[in-house]
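Hi team,

Filling in the usual template for the complex we talked about on Friday. All components are listed, including any nucleic acid strands or ligand strings, so the model treats them as one assembly.

SUBMITTER: L.P.
PURPOSE: interface mapping
COMPONENTS: two
RESIDUES: 779
SEQUENCES:
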Amino acid sequence: MANKVTNVLLVGVGGQGTILAARILSGVLQEAGYDVKMSEVHGMSQRGGSVVTFVRYGEKVYSPLVEKGTADLILSFEKLEALRWLPYLKPEGTMVVNDLALLPAPVLLGKAEYPYNALDVLREKAKKLITLDAAKIAEEKVGNIRTQNVVLLGALANNMDIPTETWEKVVRESVPPKTVDVNLKAFAAGRQYQ
Amino acid sequence: MKLFLSGDEAIARGAYEYGATFAAAYPGTPSTEVVENLIPYKEIYAEWSTNEKVALEVGLGASLAGARVIVAMKHVGVNVAADPLFTAAYTGVNGGLILVSADDPSMHSSQNEQDNRNVAPFAKIPMLEPSDSQEAKDLVGVGFKISEEMDTPVLMRITTRIAHGKGLVECGQRQEVPLREYKKQSAKYCMVPAFARPRREAVEERTARLKEFSETFPYNRIEWGPKDVGIITSGISYQYAKEVFGASVSYLKLTLTWPLPEKLIREFASQVKKVYVIEELDPYLETQIKALGIDVIGKDVIPNMFELSAEILRERILGEEPAKDNALDVAIPPRPPVLCAGCPHRPVFYTLKKMKVPVMGDIGCYGLGVMPPLEAVDTTVCMGASIGMAHGFQKANAWVGQDKKAVGVLGDSTFFHSGMTGLADMVFNKGAGVVVVLDNRTTAMTGHQPHPGTGITAKGEVSEPIQIEDVARSMGITDVAVVDSYDLAAVENAIRHALDFNGPSVVICKRACALLKGLPKMPPLTIDQDKCTKCHTCLRTGCPALVHHPDKSVTIDPNACTGCTVCAQVCRFDAIGKVGGEVRG
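RESULT (copied from the run log):
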């Protein structure tokens, strides 16, 4: 089909700040001239539950939802969530995973085990896997732990065909004025991971 | 100018552009963001009403005053507002009045899955169904016109994927619309039987006019393609159909979905070989189209419950195999939502579970009190049900001589929404139920909207806060206690006393939601591993700041802990205290 639509998933845990990342990503896609649709579910998911944001872009987008096995890119803010949403990845898709374990309630209560080998499993199943420790990068290389989202976006940006200037413009417009420099630094730091 | 807006945001933007000056709502997912996004406009009065019925009555009053009005609520809210709605259908309006019903297929954040398209024919009011954010914005302008020209409230029915799905929206300038003049017209607005009968006839005449209007309404449109298959669809289902079938079929996209354009449907159906009706939830379109004598395929292949998707259409209509799950040889634990660390509901549910008393729950974050390990809640039905059900439970037992009580548990916002009438009933009918109000000073579940007890309005004005204890006492209840939710002993004493009391009791457990901004910070706690016996009593609170390690030891995540001290209070070995400080906060 001529109308190629690209599918992206941002997944994580409620409260992790996937929303700012999704806002920047959709802003970048709009700036780049694409039709964009985004879908997420609010409500119960805010209370520490698993969260997903679907982003679709192309010349014309109809459904706001990504179908299983069709995601070109998945950015996961947490390892277990990367495993959970893996069925959405295309066989030739790319996964960018934050090397972070957040324990869900059943694990905290001792009723289930956390799959600490998540990255090994993902390495076997995903054609292209990029992992990074966003907290460490944000703290050590950027000097601000709160820029983790933008570090992860930097790593995602490597896998998308959009000019760096567009990303930087939207990051500049999306974050508080005082934090522009540190966020641009975080974006650049994330771009080191490919 | 193009903005990237959700359907809710687009409706708010439309209300702004098309001259609305008035908005009222009770928050409820997925409708909340409609009025939330209208609050910042200085041109528009917006309020959080105490419940949906009141919101619609307030909106109807504003419409009669001549304003263009948006009233928004979730699907179940329309049940609450049904009484004024069904008669507003008779009175008609003055300024344009749009009622937004945000339905929640698959129940992402709801207690049932009702399809509110059925409300339109039931109430006999026109219904618009946008398919994306752009249409959601545009249809507000169209809806105001229909409302004013046809003299009727207009139902705008959206679903979660429209409400919370974002898309690009071409936006314009606001047009100021002055208030229309109010004229006293008792025969139109005063629905006593003698006046209601002629209005009943007026509704039928209006419906006939709306049917004609629907035939040529430009948003009801045919998109011709190959004519082997024709698809009749509306709302979000149109997007799923376009996604799957693209340009390979013909479409009749319906937007004014009550009353339906019969001639247009007949014309479309007569020109294609096979007709599918693609719709989410009930066979709403299908039943009406079949009643026209048109043969269509609908719910024989498409499920009548839960969200529709492109995947379902591929599987059910095209016969495609669903994508195979990547088989993983590792178990993936679920990640359910939980009560937050420091949530003031936790100690109350911990206590209720310990007391093994039936708990009639209600609608709010405290629905999470049903999850392990708290598992304290027996029922969740609708806003305010906790009190009536606790009363009925106690009365049914008392009638046969059994002394068995239930505790009704509800939040502060829910108490004002529809708890007060239940409480009056309990007093009036000599009940002896126990009502526990989890007063966290906000409407937490939907994102911290103020309510009558908070002393601040949607617009940020200071108002007189209504005290729940004063309401209870003014109803003649003598057994009223106010305790700090974080004080486990006080909570338990108050509830035990209430259970023993021979009459209605109200226990108000007061403590602000841990997520509210501007609360004083308390130091996080830590566990003294030398004193800890790994008895895991603390884990029974279900606090997500407590971390259970594979060696059975428990630690506290200092970033998550809010220092509420509930775990320290349940610890029998004094093992939990402030970091570097004395035991027990």
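MY TAKE: The first helix of chain A runs from residue 18 to 31. Chain A touches chain B through 55 residues (CB under 8 Å).

Thanks, L.
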